[in-house]
Specification:
alpha+beta; Arc Repressor Mutant, subunit A; about 20% strand; single chain; two-stranded antiparallel ribbon; about 45% helix; 2 domains
Amino acid sequence: MFAVVGCSDCGALWVVEERPDSTSCPRCGTRHRYEKLKKFAETEAAEAAKEARSRLLQARGESDAELDDFASLERDAMDAGMDDDEFLTASGVDADAVAEAGEVDGGGSRSRREVVVDALRELDRPTAAEVRAYATDRGVDADYVDDALAKLRRRGEVSESGGRYRLL
């Protein structure tokens, strides 16, 4: 059950779900006992209560235009403007080339840290040299790998024993 209620202090309208003992006005913060509040509408659905509140605000003159229901407004907003291809073309970008480039990419880029962690995850108890080789094959410089391994070890995310690393 949803009710559209009004504040006796500032006149704000809001939607209340169920029947709470008390509720606060979202505009002025005044606390009201639910039983004492004026109920302008009571509905079973939240959308219907929102619609009723909108109509009451419109009738008060707090709304300038004739408004449709929320679902229609959302549909109209989605239909307004241009789609992605029109936007790219208007910006001077070949939309087909962008779509083609998106299809070629296999799964997004990985951060340098993620590549180091991937090496630790995929290789079986690798040495620092093995992690370095894995990461450099994927474009990460060796100096970064050494720093990342040291940081991961200090944070307790990896352990190193006998020159071999293990992800914790």
